[in-house]
Amino acid sequence: MNQPPNEVPTLEQCIRWIASLGGFLGRKGDGDPGVKTLWRGLQRLHDIAETWQLLKQLNC
Fold it and tell me: Cα–Cα–Cα angle for 31, 14, 41, nearest 5°?
């Protein structure tokens, strides 16, 4: 299992990770992610978390 990082990620890093799940590319001229991209990213993160929980239950 992977070890957690030594430093806590910043809020900006977390927002960009979630936005990347929603399709945000983070190119130099893209600016900050928008609300719609963050919403899509949160929906995808929710789906990933639910899938992980179901798989964890199946491997008991």
Answer: 75
